[in-house]
Design brief:
By secondary structure, the protein is an alpha/beta fold. The chain is 34% helix and 20% strand. It starts with 25 loop residues before the first helix and ends with a strand. This is tRNA (guanine-N(7)-)-methyltransferase.
Length: 235
C-alpha cells in the first residue's frame, strides 16, 4: 500500500492511494514501541539526501526494496531467506508495519529495516540512482474499476523512477492476480528503455515467493497470479 505525498503534487499522475486507518493491536503497538527506534524511520522525517544504508544496517550489502509490504506476511519470510541482503520495506499502513515487526521479532531478523511513508518521495529524494540490487512490488492495489485504473501504481513515470534507482543488472519483480493489471504491468515495463524482460512475457512463478492468504483466496476465486521479472540494463 502506498501514499502520495501532498508535498509532491507534480507526481500525482504517478501514484495514488487510499489512506486506510485502523488501530494497531496491543501486540503491534508493543512491537512499534520496542522495535521502531532501531528498525524504522519516517520518510517525511528523513534528512536530505540518500539514506546511508550501510550505516543503518551496520554493514555493506546489496539493498533490496519492497514497495508495499502490507501486513508483512511475505516480507518477513523473504528477508529471513536472504540474510546476505539488506532488506528494506516501505509501507504507509502503520498496523502493517507493526505486524511486520512482530514477525521480524519472531524470526529474529537482523537484516530488515522499515520505512513509513510515500515510496515516490523515498525513491525521488532518498535513494541514490543505480543503488538498489532489486525492487519488489507484490500484489499492489489493483483498482479493478476501469475509471480507477489511473490510480494504479504501475504507470510509466513511476516505473522509470524505479528503474533509475536500480543498479545495472538489478531486478524489478512484480506480481498481481488481476489479469488486466498484469497486462498493464507488462506493457508499461516493456516500454521502459532502462529495463528488459528476462522472459518472453510472464516469468515462471518463483518457488521461493510465499503464497499469502490473499493469493490463496485469488486462486480459489479463479484468478491466476502472474509474475514479471525485469532487469536494469547498463546505462
Amino acid at each position: 500500500m502506498l501514499v502520495e505525498s501532498e508535498q509532491q503534487p507534480r507526481l500525482r499522475s504517478v501514484v495514488s492511494y487510499v489512506q486506510r486507518g485502523g488501530r494497531m493491536t496491543v501486540g503491534q503497538q508493543r512491537a512499534w514501541e520496542q522495535h521502531w527506534p532501531e528498525l524504522g524511520r519516517e520518510v517525511a522525517q528523513l534528512p536530505e539526501g540518500p539514506i546511508d544504508f550501510a550505516a543503518w544496517f551496520g554493514r555493506s550489502a546489496p539493498v533490496l526494496l519492497e514497495i508495499g509490504s502490507g501486513m508483512g506476511e511475505t516480507t518477513a519470510q523473504l528477508a529471513a531467506a536472504e540474510p546476505e541482503v539488506n532488506y528494506v520495506a516501505v509501507e504507509v499502513y502503520e498496523a502493517g508495519l507493526g505486524q511486520l515487526m512482530l514477525r521480524a521479532e519472531k524470526l529474529a531478523l537482523e537484516n530488515l529495516r522499515l520505512l513509513h511513508g510515500d515510496a515516490v518521495v523515498l525513491l525521488t529524494e532518498h535513494i541514490a540512482p543505480e543503488s538498489l540490487s532489486g525492487v519488489r512490488i507484490f500484489f499492489p492495489d489493483p483498482w479493478p474499476k476501469k475509471r480507477h485504473h489511473k490510480r494504479r501504481l504501475v504507470q510509466p513515470k513511476f516505473i522509470h523512477l524505479v528503474a533509475s534507482r536500480l543498479a545495472p543488472g538489478g531486478m524489478l519483480h512484480l506480481a498481481t492476480d488481476w489479469a488486466h493489471y498484469a497486462d498493464q504491468m507488462l506493457e508499461v515495463c516493456s516500454g521502459e528503455p532502462l529495463l528488459r524482460n528476462r522472459f518472453p512475457d510472464w516469468a515462471p512463478r518463483p518457488s521461493w515467493r510465499p503464497v499469502t492468504k490473499f493469493e490463496q483466496r485469488a486462486n480459489e476465486e479463479g484468478r491466476i497470479s502472474r509474475d514479471l521479472i525485469f532487469e536494469r540494463l547498463p546505462a
